[in-house]
Amino acid sequence: MTTDLHCHTTASDGQLTPNELIERAKQQGVSRLAITDHDSMDGYFEVCEQADVEVEREQFQLIAGVELSCIWGKALIHIVGLKVDPKVPVLVEGLQSQQLAREQRAVIIAQKLEKLGFSGALEYASALAGDGQVGRPHFARFLVEKGHVSSISQAFKKYLGAGKPGDVKLTWPALETVVSWIVASGGQAVLAHPLKYKMTATKLRALIADFKAAGGVAIEVVSGKQTADQTQHLAQLSQRYQLLASIGSDFHQPDQPWNELGQMGELPKSCEPVWSGW
Length: 278
Ligand code: MN
Ligand code: MN
Ligand code: MN
Known about the structure:
Elements: E1 2-4, H1 18-27, E2 30-35, H2 42-48, H3 51-55, E3 61-72, E4 75-82, H4 89-115, H5 121-129, H6 136-145, H7 152-160, H8 175-184, E5 188-191, H9 201-213, E6 218-223, H10 228-240, E7 244-248
Parallel strand pairs: 1-2, 2-3, 5-6, 6-7
Antiparallel strand pairs: 3-4, 4-5
């Protein structure tokens, strides 16, 4: 049984619709999948409305998940919630406030682009995003497709990347807050991709200690394709802090083989999987 507990659909910044994602996961041999869109569970809800997932529950297990943005010190951290009950009011309200923050950010980015002489950005980007969240990739496509820049990378380099006008920071809640939403909804809080924050070893240990104190129960020991050394490092951290181990591709789109669904290898045998009690 291949388990993948981290991936994205069009409900956040993924390119596949929820049902396309399920199909691709099955083709890749995944039999236990958590959809973990950024600050949204709409993709999960959409799949749950499809009867065939119910029928195939024995062969294919869909886990209710979400990836929440939060702040620890000055660092932007991602916390995955697994097996959350999406009807619990604390989580429902938390997701609403995260969505509101994202919408406000999109409006501010559009205003900044307007000042630079690029009008109509919000309408264009919103249309591209459809039912999903409007993010910088949509504004980048706006700039390219309207002929303001020659490529997506130019859009980020000139207008949307770090330190540029469209680099609008969001005020996310504290790590403790989003972990408490997950705990209150009966879910398991997982520290996502611990090595992506590029912290020193000392700082990363402090983050993990605070995360555990807040109620976190697991860390992603495997996140996409990574080196054996990285896996070993994270496995040791999970053991040192007596945390369970999770595994996920962080799949966003089909043209990134390093994040392909279900293709990230296995957890080391020394790890206690986050699903051991499911
Ligand atoms: Mn993403
Ligand atoms: Mn993330
Ligand atoms: Mn992710």
